[in-house]
Design brief:
- The chain has about 220 residues and is an alpha/beta fold.
- The protein has one domain: Rossmann fold, CATH 3.40.50.
- It has 5 helices and 8 strands.
- An 8-stranded mixed β-sheet has the order 1-2-4-3-5-6-7-8, sandwiched between helices.
């Protein structure tokens, strides 16, 4: 996982990037949890999501939002972080201009930024949102959500409430032309302290399904 530095809106951004296994390899970008709660690209869930895409041959990037690690700038309440994510995706696309598809995966705050980004980038074909903070932020910008994906939530999460996530899932499922999967992980809290393997089984099962040649979800 080579260390990389690339330009962002407020200076350099620090990341880890695994080039694709082939010229037309799909792209995946992984977004970390809230910087002011200690979130970094080295968060264990962010790293696990990164490894899942690398194992499937994706050109995969995880990076630190502004003000985190060696990334320049300072926290910007999600507005600047969305710009960081857009710049990061631009950077990967310059390396893999013929990418066959693009995926976004994010955890908690990173899931919020990822779902905002997919509204602005029509090339995004799939998403994985782990514990999207639907009780803390307004997700009405997903109108309509342009891509199919999976939302994963811990049943024992007291930070992001399962009920709020269920309401988001129900709303998204009323939209046509997309398919929203929803997995709840028993006993898991917001940090999946003892259930990371269960959470990643959900991720792996979904990716295997979506990446199958016989999958009808586009």
């Amino acid at each position: 996982m080579p260390a990389v530095i690339f330009p962002g809106p407020e200076g350099r951004l620090e990341g880890r990037f695994q080039p694709g296994a082939r010229a037309r390899a799909p792209i995946a970008m992984i977004l970390h949890p809230h910087p002011q709660a200690g979130g970094t690209m080295n968060d264990r869930i962010t790293q696990a999501l990164y490894r899942a895409f690398v194992a499937r041959g994706f050109a995969t990037l995880r990076f630190n939002f502004r003000g985190v690690g060696r990334s320049q700038g300072s926290f910007d309440n999600g507005i600047g972080e969305l710009s960081d994510a857009a710049a990061a995706l631009d950077w990967v696309q310059q390396i893999h201009p013929e990418a066959s598809s693009t995926w976004i995966a994010g955890y908690s705050f990173g899931a919020l930024i990822g779902m905002q980004l997919l509204m602005r980038r029509p090339e995004v074909r799939g998403f994985i949102s782990v514990s999207p903070p639907a009780n803390m932020y307004d997700f009405s910008f997903l109108a309509p959500c342009p891509a199919s994906g999976i939302i994963i939530q811990g049943v024992a999460d007291t930070v992001v409430t399962p009920n709020a996530v269920q309401k988001l899932v129900d709303k998204l499922r009323t939209q046509k032309h997309i398919t929203i999967h929803h997995d709840e992980i028993p006993r898991a809290n917001h940090f999946y302290e003892n259930e990371l393997d269960d959470m990643m089984r959900s991720v792996d099962t979904y990716l295997d399904m979506r990446l199958s040649p016989d999958c009808l979800i586009k």
